[in-house]
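Q: Glycerate kinase, please. Structure only.
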Amino acid sequence: MKVVIAIDSFKGCCTTMEAADAVERGLIYYREDIKTVKVPIADGGEGTVDTLVKSLDGKYVNVEVLNPLGRKVKSKYGILPGNIAVIEMAAASGLPLISKSEYNPLITTTYGTGELIRDALDKGCRTIYIGLGGSATNDGGVGMAQSLGVSFKDKNNQEIGFGGAELKNITTIDTSRIDARINNTEMVLLSDVTNPLCGENGASAVYGPQKGATSKTIAILDSNLRYFGGLIKEQLSIDILERPGSGAAGGLGAGLFAFCNAKSYSGIEKIMDLIGLEDHLKDADLVFTGEGRIDFQTINGKVPIGVARKAKKFGVPVIAIVGSIGEGAEIVYNYGIDAIVDIVSEPISLDKALEAGISLIERATERTMRIWDTSGKSQISKKVQKKEII
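A: Structure for Glycerate kinase:
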């Protein structure tokens, strides 16, 4: 029996490979003769760099950049064969880089993301993949653009400061000194966010609360982004206000569209194609996927659905191992998931669940296989087969 393990990270608990290792151990606890293929996977958010570097034999580049609050922080990105850079904006401008008490999208910046892009340009990369998940920012990508040489002046001809609160002060956008290498670089955005820049489905309203924004703050941020989008249309003749994906990462999508001529792709679809997931599914008997929390939003380009869609092309059953089951999760059954297994089998606090997450994944996998085999669906070979890691 061949089992493919393509599971997302469990935020605050384990990486995609740690989760895959745990599933594999659960399978071994049940039977040692199951062949496993572990495929690192991500959807453009956390783990994207690790997934592509490990799957495609890339390398890491360490660099010091500014974090969302303008403090120096050690960061990294990847370079893949062909001198293709892969960047997670969260590695420079993400929530994990600041404490929860410091969350404030009025003052956080994407400047560090621009520094990662600039370093990749310095390394000769002319194709750059950028994952847009996990941002702490709501500055429309202004910080990123400033890092690359774009100037945003106020009425006193002074450069504006960092953060979403500053956008209302912009009177002039000057792109004359933008890094010229941008013109010869393909910017590929990995994101499944299709939100516009502003409005009830925009960057501020939908994602602002998780970054510390109150209802009052959201109104300010949304108004500032609308003003900023209007300026871009007026001064650069580029309309990004309603463009799908402009609202990704607090409007960083809009900034990359406007200043870097970026193109947006489904993160999970692009990554699955890059790592050749289908090649491992063709002769699989079962697939394990999953994520920290599965709910109605999972169908919007998350790892489990992407994996399930590929698996269904070959008629392979798909089981999702998850940290918790949220509202509307049953909708995923219409998208290729055959079963959902919650790793928590008794009342437990969130902190304890996170601490014990890996062992809980192991146990849940073993239980699942016992049920699966009892149902008669599993045809497990008696021959011990080699385990494979890709």
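A: Brief note, in case it's useful. Residues 305 and 357 are 22 Å apart (CA to CA).
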